[in-house]
Design a protein that fits this description.
This protein has about 400 residues and is mainly alpha-helical. The protein has 3 domains: about 60 residues; about 100 residues, Receptor-associated Protein (Up-down Bundle); about 230 residues, Receptor-associated Protein (Up-down Bundle), CATH 1.20.81. About 75% of the residues lie in helices and about 5% in strands. Strands 2-1-3 form a 3-stranded antiparallel beta sheet. Helix 8 runs parallel beside helix 16.
Length: about 400
């Protein structure tokens, strides 16, 4: 059923806007009037299964069509609350749609409701929007519908998305200060070398005397930056383009991801985050009745590093042959030994789902502690580096001035 965006006036003359699903614009206007709303304009916005805009704005809307996990998480939490209160699914969606903050998610949920009314299950309806709902979401909802515990599954999904989003935001927040400092420091150095240093050191060229070594180094660096800045910019652009091309191929991305895991400190951090995400996602899938092999295939898509994806794929093959999860993952010697051992203990005790959650908590905590430590160390290191560079510039400028003053005296 088509979805229409509308702007209208309520009974008190206040402006109101939103979406409404109807067979035609006339039906949409009639539906709005029945709700006590007086439509000013009604425009069809969606026809396709993935919620794309129609009309002249299609190309523009495609650039801004993504739905952040935060909005999906909020919607899922609200839907779990309504379904848990005993409300029929269609009624819950009708209440939820106007409350959804994201415009595209609002349109998608309207289409999901229409699909359910037409006879589809919730998982089938969500599956028509793969750009909004990932495979883990759809499979867990399918398992929840099959077991009759949809509200519990939705609550777990909301927890899972919230934890992942909180982790992402924490990492992003931790990296803001170092990135800003690096950017400002680079900008200060460019201004010093391109504008300040040449104007101050111009007087040294008239002195018929050998300049101190620090001053000569400073002048050489300043001259190189001013003369070959375009070459440096081209080299940086070429490096970025090369990395982009490498990430565009499976072989290149595998090589880059392998190199990332070998970087001291940073590689260990990436591995811990990947293990935490793998364990939490797999535990949630298994706890909601998704078969192990299907869950491994879903988790492989969740883990972004190609090296770890390959390990998960190989482990899935071994599990299909009858081996355990811990043994299968440990064979590649990529996953941490502690994580592999904990998974093995969980399998032997019959508490694999709970143990996977503990593994996720353990490595999530270690990753966050490592991020905090790195941030704490980066701040004084960057300040010290900037102090050394600025001090070198100042000394390089002052040394010849001192020598000239001594000669004059």
């Amino acid at each position: 059923m088509p979805v229409f965006e509308y702007s209208a006036l309520d009974a008190k003359g206040r402006k109101k806007s939103g979406i409404v699903d109807a067979d035609s614009p006339v039906t949409a206007r009639q539906k709005l009037r029945e709700e006590g709303v007086f439509p000013v304009s009604v425009k069809e916005t969606a026809r396709t299964a993935d919620g794309a805009r129609t009309g002249s704005s299609a190309a523009l809307s495609g650039l801004f069509s993504g739905v952040k996990p935060r909005f999906v998480s909020i919607m899922t939490r609200q839907l779990a609350t309504l379904v848990g209160a005993g409300m029929p699914l269609v009624t819950a969606l009708e209440i939820l749609i106007p409350q959804t903050a994201h415009p595209r998610l609002q349109r998608v949920m309207a289409q999901v409701k229409d699909s359910i009314v037409e006879g589809s299950s919730l998982a089938q309806a969500l599956g028509r929007h793969p750009k909004v709902f990932p495979p883990i979401y759809i499979n867990m909802v399918r398992a929840g519908e099959a077991s009759g515990a949809l509200e519990i599954v939705l609550a777990r999904l909301a927890d899972l998305f919230e934890r992942q989003e909180n982790s992402r935001l924490r990492i992003k927040k931790a990296m803001v200060y170092p990135v800003v400092m690096m950017f400002l420091g680079s900008a200060v150095m460019v201004v010093l070398m391109v504008y300040i240093v040449p104007s101050i050191t111009a007087i040294f060229e008239q002195v018929d005397r050998a300049l101190p070594t620090p001053t000569r180094i400073l002048l050489a660096v300043s001259s190189a930056i001013r003369s070959y800045w375009w070459l440096m910019a081209a080299a940086a652009a070429a490096a970025v383009a090369a990395v982009g091309r490498a990430r565009g191929t499976e072989k290149g991305r595998l090589a880059l991801d392998e190199a990332i895991l070998k970087i001291p400190v940073a590689g260990g951090l990436v591995l811990k985050l990947a293990v935490a995400r793998f364990s939490r996602t797999l535990g949630s899938l298994l706890a909601n009745g998704v078969p192990m092999l299907s869950a491994m295939e879903i988790v492989k898509a969740v883990v972004e590093n190609r090296v770890i994806q390959a390990v998960v794929s190989e482990a899935a093959v071994k599990i299909g042959e009858g081996r355990g999860l811990g043994e299968s993952l440990g064979a590649a010697k990529v996953f941490p030994i502690v994580a592999v051992q904990m998974m093995g203990v969980g399998e032997q005790s019959g508490e694999l789902e709970a143990m996977l959650e503990k593994v996720a908590d353990l490595y999530q905590g270690e990753a966050e502690a490592a991020i905090d430590s790195l941030t704490t160390l980066l701040e004084p290191i960057m300040i010290l580096f900037m102090a050394v560079v600025v001090g070198f510039v100042v000394i390089s400028i002052l040394l010849p001035i001192f020598e000239m003053s001594q000669l004059a005296g």
